[in-house]
UniProtKB/TrEMBL annotation:
This protein's name: STAS domain-containing protein
Keyword vocabulary terms for this entry: Membrane, Transmembrane, Transmembrane helix
Keyword Transit peptide: no
Keyword Membrane tagged: yes
Length: 481
């Protein structure tokens, strides 16, 4: 049983490693770096997070979302400053995990998660179109026909093979099968070797060759902070998705610490920074990868490709990898979200669409942060309108009993509940069903008391919770209680 499980996870890791190579090369080229920089980064980040991280089955590597944010840094200051940035971003990630801030991901609403998944699925599919180009021009003629044909063949194998047997990962069979077919028939198709040559030696330890002074820190810190934020966001959201798919619970803080340590190691050995990669994670999970073995095998295979297997790996047709990634995009997209758009509240439906669109148009960090802000504003608006009051009058005393939450967004509605002009001399504010949550709420109660006092009337506040009384006392608010 153990041997079978190990083999299954090892094969899943091997399959995932094939998909990691072109992505890491492409991301390195986007950042104007040597492709080996991306592959070294993939080796360190994938291996270290797999062995020491808090989410078995999740795949991390040199990610495009982090590569995009440092293009300007590399262009202006060069490789060494970039490596220093990778190390510093890793330290920030590590500190984030040590401070146990990984739980903050629980504050991301489910509609934002759906938008994140859908947006990334579209980005994954869209990014594959670059492989239909050669020297900046779209493929034509026989090259285009063979490219499209092999992509479709790969997708058919991935979809149909599980109906025949589940002994081997379908993506692995598709990649190897299409590769053998292409080599045997000498088909005119682009291969990994056309993107870059990946042969190299062992990564070498070296501190970034930059001045250790405040000027250097001033240059690299903004980029390092942005890389850390983007990396942590993508990792923790992919972490949540992996939890849902595997129906298990990981350790987010441990994952953040491992990711930080992996980025530090990558930077010290000349590699790119990275984080969790949703596409490769989906390939690993769909291939049966559930343990640390799959991630570790995937990372180690990247190093073996560099050292020994580059002649074979460079002959893999890009069409096979594109076909696999198209399937990943289709399986990643939350198609069920389309069915629920008309059933969920309108603000949630708009949130799903907005986060999806922002992810495609900009980047993940912007989309998630915008989604959280939109969700928070929507929540505040809805709860601000929920405040109401029961009113009783008798024996010269009028009693208001508000229901709801008093905070910055509901202050205006709270003030509208009171009829200052027509109220009697004695007014009671019964707070047994009212919750004061911020300073705006405290100020609102104080201001209401002052308005009644100026009108020659008395406002008594009853049944405040201990927490609310403490808020009033700390703020120095003089209210008759």
């Amino acid at each position: 049983m153990w041997s079978s499980n190990f083999s299954k996870n090892a094969l899943a890791g091997l399959t995932t490693s094939f998909a990691l190579v072109p992505e890491c090369i492409a991301f390195a080229l986007v950042a104007h770096l040597n492709p080996l920089t991306g592959l070294y980064g993939a080796f360190f980040i994938c291996t270290i997070t797999a062995i020491f991280g808090g989410r078995p089955g999740m795949i991390s590597g040199a990610a495009g979302s982090m590569a995009v944010v440092i293009v300007a840094l590399v262009a202006q200051h060069g490789l060494q400053y970039f490596l220093a940035t990778v190390v510093l971003s890793g330290l920030i990630m590590l500190l984030f995990g040590v401070l146990r801030l990984g739980k903050l991901v629980t504050m991301v609403p489910h509609p934002v998660m759906l938008g994140f998944v859908n947006g990334l699925a579209i980005v994954i599919a869209w990014s594959q179109l670059q492989h239909f180009k050669a020297d900046g021009a779209w493929l034509q003629g026989a090259s285009l026909v063979w490219m499209c044909g092999l992509v479709l063949l790969t997708m058919l194998i991935v979809y149909l093979l599980p109906r025949l047997t589940k002994a081997l990962p379908p993506a692995l069979v598709a990649i190897v099968g299409v590769g053998v077919l292409s080599a045997t028939l000498a088909l005119p198709v682009r291969t990994l070797g056309d993107m870059a040559h990946i042969a190299g030696g062992l990564p070498v330890f070296a501190l970034p060759d930059v001045p250790m002074n405040l000027e250097t820190l001033h240059i690299v810190f903004p980029y390092a902070l942005l890389m850390a934020v983007v990396g942590l966001l993508e990792t923790l959201l992919t972490f949540n998705l992996t939890d849902e798919i595997t129906e298990t619970r990981g350790l987010p803080n441990r994952e953040c610490v491992a990711l930080g340590a992996a980025n530090v190691a990558s930077g010290l050995f000349g590699g790119m920074g990275g984080c969790a990669m949703i596409g490769q994670t989906m390939i690993n999970l769909s291939s049966g990868g559930r343990t640390r073995v799959s991630g570790a095998v995937s990372g180690i295979m990247i190093l073996l490709f560099i050292l020994f297997l580059s002649p074979l790996i460079e002959r893999i047709p890009l069409a096979a990898l594109v076909g696999v990634m198209f399937v990943v995009a289709q399986q990643t997209f939350a198609w069920s979200s389309l069915q629920v758009l008309g059933k969920v509240p309108r603000h949630d439906a708009l949130l799903i669409v907005a986060v999806t669109a922002i992810t495609v148009a900009t980047d993940l960090a912007t989309a998630v942060l915008c989604g959280i802000v939109i969700a928070a504003l929507s929540f505040a608006w809805r709860h601000a309108r929920d405040i109401r009051a029961d009113v009783e009058q008798g024996a010269g005393v009028k009693t208001y009993t508000p229901h709801g939450t008093l905070f910055f967004a509901s202050v205006a509605h709270f003030n509208e509940l009171f009829d200052l002009q027509d109220d009697p001399q004695q007014v009671v504010l019964d707070c047994r069903y009212l919750r004061l949550v911020d300073h705006s709420a405290v100020v609102a109660v104080a201001a209401l008391s002052e308005r009644y006092a100026k009108a020659g009337k008395t406002l008594r506040v009853l049944h405040l919770s201990k927490r609310c009384e403490a808020l009033l006392q700390r703020s120095g608010v003089a209210v008759t209680v």
